[in-house]
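Researcher: Next entry in the queue.
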Amino acid sequence: MAECSITSVQVLNNPAPYTDPIVLEVQYECLSSLQDDLEWRINYVGSAESDQYDQILDSALVGPVQQGTFKFRMEAPAPDPSKIPPNDLLGVTALLLTCSYKGKEFVRVGYYVNVEYTDPELLDPERPPPNPPIIDKLQRNIMADHPRVTKFPHDFDNEPEQMPEQQVEDMADDDVLGDNDNDEDEEEEEDDELSGDGEVDVDVENVQPQVNGSSVTFSAGSGFTGFTVQGKQQSQQQQAAEMDTDMQMG
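Model: Structure for this entry, 250 residues:
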């Protein structure tokens, strides 16, 4: 079990105008004290075409890290629209809350975000949308009820576990015999649905928000390592080891 885990995240101002700050209230639990600080980041995916448009909206070091349950608030500025391709400003994208220890990420909470106009005149399907987009007329809706949690293996302050010598030899023999049936299980990433109380349910595979009155289906992979946004493929270059599927809430 991880030394530190997120127990809840609340999006405090949602939906909100696009230009408003993004405010998250984060609660986390540590099973023991840690030597260094935790680094928290809020990332905004600017385009599904390339990660060069991603923006780190806020970054904070939290410490000293003691045993117990703690809560803090992060307030990040709105994404800079000038750094996002105009065609990607509206529609569906993603917001990521990540936490790292000693430079290594160990948990990520991802949310789909829908950006659209709320003015009926700008929603008229018979009229072309403004070009360039009118930023002051945009609304940002973070789908806070459908988070996707990805956990990554981390040793924290512990020494990496050493595999017994006999077990190493047995595994080597299996490789010689071509017994690789469990390879996929060894690099399996699991997703948890984060909520305010109770336990985590692992069943969020497709979310169907309303965008301008029509349904947009997300073909989501595991914890934002692969997902489709407006028909485009977005990839993150990280793999997670097999983790527990349940997380207790504080």
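Model: The longest helix spans residues 165-177.
Researcher: Noted, moving on.
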